């Protein structure tokens, strides 16, 4: 079974982001960029499927600028087999990314797409759902456990009320949640080996996809500053204040 894992290059989760002074977006100049953390979890899960001999090949794909090859290399060092960079100079919206992924799924004859539930830069939480929709495939989103048998994926989903287990007929799209696994660090020999693994660069038009934007970012601002906290003298006072001042948001 071929597994496709889309990986997005985002501002590293440890970086405190700065908004550009003209409010047009986030300042990424000189900022550390990394693989979206949920995508690392997806790569790890795919590699585990390969180790269990459930997956035969893992293809990682990133849509974006040339520097996205860095996150592809990281995924290759973790155990993916080959990479595809779909070259785009501007940031594409989830629907455009989903259309490109659909075209790649058809070209590669993939049986499973394992991807992050959400990119931590734009928090869209949409690409996986859109991809499953336009492919007409079942989807198991927010996965915290995945079991694959011959033609079924059993996915335990993290939902507000607890855990929900669904069975999907393959081919399917699965999106990963935080508790699915703990991604491995790539060892130095694997980083070296990954340098020799192939990365193909293709343009969106080669996949026959039109990707003009449908949204315009009007303005980006920093969140309102939180008021400083206070220290209470006793548990008694804490309980008293909670009773009188705490609000249900
Ligand atoms: P989003 O819907 O933007 O929150 O992203 C959800 C998931 O879609 C991410 O975790 C990635 O797996 C995938 N994805 C979104 N944008 C890209 C991109 N530009 N390149 C590769 N994968 C992407």
Summarize the structure.
The chain is of the alpha/beta class.
Please give a structural write-up:
The protein is α/β, with parallel strands linked by helices. It has a single domain, classed as HUPs (Rossmann fold). About 25% of the residues lie in helices and about 25% in strands. The protein has helices at about 35-50, 70-80, 95-110, 125-135, 190-195, 235-245; strands at about 1-5, 10, 35, 55-65, 80-85, 110-115, 140-150, 150-160, 160-170, 170-175, 200. Helix 2 packs across helix 5 and helix 3 packs across helix 4 (about 125-135). The longest helix has 15 residues, at about 35-50. The chain is globular. The chain binds adenosine monophosphate.
Features:
249 residues, alpha/beta, Rossmann fold, nine-stranded mixed sheet, 11 strands, 26% strand, globular, binds adenosine monophosphate
């Amino acid at each position: 079974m071929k597994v496709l894992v889309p990986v997005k290059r985002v501002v590293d989760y440890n970086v405190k982001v700065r908004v550009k002074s003209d409010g047009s977006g986030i300042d990424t100049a000189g900022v550390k960029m990394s693989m979206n953390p949920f995508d690392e979890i997806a790569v790890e899960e795919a590699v585990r499927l390969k180790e269990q001999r459930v997956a035969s090949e893992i293809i990682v794909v990133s849509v974006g600028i040339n520097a996205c090859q860095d996150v592809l290399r990281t995924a290759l060092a973790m155990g993916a087999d080959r990479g595809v960079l779909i070259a785009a100079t501007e940031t594409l919206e989830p629907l455009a990314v989903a259309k490109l992924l659909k075209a790649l799924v058809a070209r590669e004859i993939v049986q499973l797409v394992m991807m992050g539930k959400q990119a931590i830069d734009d928090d869209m939480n949409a690409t996986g759902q859109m991809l499953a929709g336009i492919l007409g495939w079942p989807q198991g989103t927010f996965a915290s456990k995945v079991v694959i048998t011959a033609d079924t994926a059993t996915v335990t989903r993290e939902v507000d009320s607890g855990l929900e287990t669904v069975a999907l007929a393959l081919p399917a799209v699965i999106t990963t949640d935080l508790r699915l696994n703990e991604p491995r660090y790539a060892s130095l020999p694997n980083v070296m080996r990954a340098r020799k693994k192939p990365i193909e660069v293709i343009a969106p038009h080669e996949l026959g996809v039109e990707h003009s934007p449908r949204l315009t970012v009007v303005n980006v601002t920093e969140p309102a500053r939180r008021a400083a906290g206070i220290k209470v003298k006793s548990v008694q006072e804490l309980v008293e204040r909670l009773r009188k001042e705490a609000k249900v948001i």
